[in-house]
User: Which sequence fits this backbone?
């Protein structure tokens, strides 16, 4: 959703042991905030990375991890829940810059 954004730098990582691109300590150091879909994702980060994970701002979006990557219904739910924290492009402007007023 944010790959072409000039406003945000994003990385997509997984917390499962078989994740295609697993979250690393370097990722945590790099990030200002970490967004996770489920509470157990946050718990895994805190357990695996100890104090570093507990000190990082981790925002749980409370979205069940039942979707395929970039499934339309997942993108819609992400857009809705992330709007509280980020300027989220609408579906017609995913490739264009959008500013937020808050």
Assistant:
């Amino acid at each position: 959703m944010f790959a072409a954004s000039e406003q945000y730098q994003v990385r997509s990582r997984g917390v499962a042991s078989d994740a295609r691109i697993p979250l690393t300590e370097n990722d945590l150091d790099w990030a200002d905030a970490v967004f996770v879909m489920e509470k157990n994702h946050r718990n895994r980060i805190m357990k695996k990375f100890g104090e570093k994970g507990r000190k990082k701002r981790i925002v749980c979006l409370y979205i069940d991890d039942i979707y395929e990557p970039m499934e339309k219904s997942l993108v819609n739910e992400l857009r809705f829940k992330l709007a509280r924290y980020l300027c989220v492009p609408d579906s017609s402007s995913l490739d264009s810059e959008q500013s937020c007023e808050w």
